[in-house]
Amino acid sequence: MQKTALVTGGAGFIGAHVAQELLDMGMKVVVLDDLSGGKRSNVPDGALFVEDSITNEACINSLFEAHAFDYVYHLAAYAAEGLSHFIRRFNYHNNLIGSILLINASVNHNVKCFVFTSSIAVYGAGELPLSENQIPQPEDPYGIAKYAVEMDLKNAHEMFGLNSVIFRPHNVYGSKQNIADKYRNVVGIFMNQVLKGENLTVFGDGEQTRAFSHISDVAPYIAKAVVIPDAYNKTFNIGGDQPYTVNELAEAVLAEFATSAQLTHLEARNEVVHAYADHSLFKSVFNPKIPLGLAEGLSEMAAWVRQTGSQEPTVFEGIEIAKNMPASWLKLTKDDK
Length: 337
Prior knowledge:
Elements: E1 4-8, H1 13-24, E2 28-33, E3 48-51, H2 57-67, E4 71-74, H3 88-108, E5 113-117, H4 141-160, E6 164-169, E7 172-173, H5 186-195, E8 200-203, E9 209-210, E10 213-214, H6 219-224, E11 234-238, E12 244-245, H7 246-257, E13 263-266, E14 274-275, H8 280-286, H9 294-308, H10 327-336
Parallel strand pairs: 1-2, 1-4, 2-3, 4-5, 5-6, 6-11, 7-10, 8-13, 9-14
Antiparallel strand pairs: 9-12
Helix pairs in contact: 2-3, 3-4, 5-7, 5-9, 7-9
């Protein structure tokens, strides 16, 4: 019997790729997205698209009653760690309360498994490499919200038997990513700046380290989690193994586009300096392929970016706190308004 899956955020970057993987697995897919960060064109052919928000409780309950979902893949979130300090109410309402509405509906409608994309932001500045056996200490409201949802899912399993699989991806990039967001997706920001003939802007000295993760090393495994019993009720780091500095990433992007653009260093912002993860648990359960190298992954994304063209950067409307916001963000916000 054909299984039915709900994919929240399925018009967004990771969600669109997960939705396609589920269709390829033979599932019926319903995509729920408010298009605040995603695009209708990202939704794969064959999926039923519903434009609405995860914070609309009436819509959530109506969808669950109509479709009797076997699985829920919850990827809808505004994943701007740095900006989350300045949009606290929005962050918790969207990323936490919206998640709880989905968990409630999943319990009430006997969903078989709830797959949640959390983030390594839950760790904060933990011991490297970041490991699932560490006690999370998130340092920004985004990470706090993600960790709260993780804890609620564990409680929902203990209290109601709702199975879940939690993934903590990090620095994912690839085709269909939003390159117009000024506050997140550094690979997309860099590529958009190149296409616009601008210098690449780097916060601080650029020696921050991240392990960048190509979408092909993330989306297929998120999709397959529900058919891997050993993954149930576990939490997995997922993504690239090799850390790079932001400077190294910028130079790799410049090399891919063969441009003479320069790096412009801005004042440092409040962020975790070094963050990369251990993936031993993920590898033991999912037996993944060797991750795509940075150069090859950037080449794949660059081909898509060249085809789609540059985008005008968007500004987040509704900044709640301007105090201590990076001057470059504050200036951009004022200029764009």
